[in-house]
């Protein structure tokens, strides 16, 4: 790639397409490389894509701008103002999670398909509480937390959903295929969610996938009150944009690193939680872009520690640069990928990966390695 000084002077090179075009139309109106970079950094992903198709020079500047982006996006909002925030996303989203408290708002109000690319998969979790950074909002009603993973080079993200009891067999087959078809040692990560009716299915899925091609995956998720996905991509869908789901699995395979850890029910003091997370930190190697997820049992939080924001605050103390999102549920899925951090009662039975009265943390990191 040409040096920055060379790029800044290309408007003086008569051989460049833009200069030829300028002379053809006898105009001196021309945006330099620096001018375009200044403008492009304010564009969202869709506008930047459109700008890249103007000419080869703009494409070059747009590609340079894209290299400065690529991180996950998280934010919290109330009411319908979230639409504006989503329209301003700087990176094209691939998968989005929406955490919200239990309330009677219309499902149609939550649909994001009108402002997101058709390729983006959205999973909405109606939970017993939400969290962002070091703020654990138990029993939150109108607030929502949004987390988007962008399209990442050499990374496959697949969302597999059960919206009908007749889909169980197909769900098993799709989950196994998504895990086992990649025979390499590339990192694998599973986000697994279900409602109360889908708990047994999710537990059986965890049992089937406990060993995936020799690579132990990072696992994170749990049981929520309600679970639904966007239905607009289904040609035969009805007038509703969203469909309730029994179980959803998000499989991420490729050029990422991920770690998960289970803070079990025996870790019931701040000191024990911090010891466990310090062990976690010692085995995590962050890259340029990272995101953290936390799924806690609704019996933890203030019910266990008699104060708020305990576990999220400890996580942010140890990982201050990693954005943290998550929720509270009624049963957790997780795998300890940190050495010397396995359960003493390790079992490959029906409840493998399934826990109660625990908190599960997951970190996904990708991009250039930090020195």
Automatic annotation (TrEMBL):
<dbReference type="GO" id="GO:0000209">
    <property type="term" value="P:protein polyubiquitination"/>
</dbReference>
<dbReference type="InterPro" id="IPR001810">
    <property type="entry name" value="F-box_dom"/>
</dbReference>
<protein>
    <submittedName>
        <fullName>F-box only protein 22 isoform X2</fullName>
    </submittedName>
</protein>
<feature type="domain" description="F-box">
    <location>
        <begin position="38"/>
        <end position="65"/>
    </location>
</feature>
<dbReference type="GO" id="GO:0032436">
    <property type="term" value="P:positive regulation of proteasomal ubiquitin-dependent protein catabolic process"/>
</dbReference>
<feature type="region of interest" description="Disordered">
    <location>
        <begin position="1"/>
        <end position="21"/>
    </location>
</feature>
<dbReference type="Pfam" id="PF12937">
    <property type="entry name" value="F-box-like"/>
</dbReference>
<dbReference type="InterPro" id="IPR036047">
    <property type="entry name" value="F-box-like_dom_sf"/>
</dbReference>
């Amino acid at each position: 790639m040409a040096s920055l000084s060379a790029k800044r002077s290309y408007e003086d090179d008569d051989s460049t397409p833009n200069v030829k075009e300028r002379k053809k139309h006898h105009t001196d109106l021309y945006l330099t490389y620096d001018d375009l970079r200044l403008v492009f950094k304010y564009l969202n992903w869709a506008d930047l894509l459109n700008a890249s198709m103007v000419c080869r020079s703009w494409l070059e500047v747009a590609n340079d701008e894209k290299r400065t982006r690529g991180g996950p996006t998280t934010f919290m909002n109330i009411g319908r103002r979230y639409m504006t925030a989503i329209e301003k996303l700087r990176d094209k989203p691939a998968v989005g999670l929406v955490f919200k408290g239990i309330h009677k708002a219309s499902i149609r109000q939550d649909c994001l398909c009108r402002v997101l690319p058709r390729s983006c998969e959205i999973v909405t979790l109606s939970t017993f509480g939400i969290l962002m950074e070091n703020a654990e909002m138990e029993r939150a009603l109108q607030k929502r937390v949004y987390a988007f993973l962008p399209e990442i080079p050499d990374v496959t993200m697949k969302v597999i959903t059960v919206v009908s009891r007749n889909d169980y067999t197909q769900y098993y087959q799709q989950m196994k295929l998504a895990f086992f078809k990649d025979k390499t040692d590339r990192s694998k990560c599973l986000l697994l969610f279900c409602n109360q009716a889908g708990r047994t299915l999710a537990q059986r899925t965890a049992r089937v996938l406990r060993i995936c091609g020799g690579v132990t995956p990072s696992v994170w998720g749990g049981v929520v009150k309600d679970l639904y996905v966007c239905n607009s991509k289904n040609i035969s869908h009805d007038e509703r944009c969203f469909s309730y789901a029994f179980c959803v699995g998000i499989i991420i395979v490729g050029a990422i690193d991920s770690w998960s850890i289970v803070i079990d029910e025996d870790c019931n003091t701040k000191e024990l939680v911090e010891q466990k997370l310090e062990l976690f930190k010692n085995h995590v190697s962050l890259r340029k872009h990272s995101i953290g997820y936390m799924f806690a049992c609704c019996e933890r939080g203030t019910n266990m520690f008699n104060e708020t924001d305990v576990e999220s605050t400890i996580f942010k103390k140890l990982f201050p640069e990693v954005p943290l999102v998550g929720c509270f549920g009624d049963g957790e899925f997780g795998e300890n990928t940190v050495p010397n951090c396995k359960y003493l009662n390790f079992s490959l039975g029906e409840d493998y990966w399934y826990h109660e009265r625990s908190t599960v943390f997951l970190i996904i990191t990708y991009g250039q390695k930090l020195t």
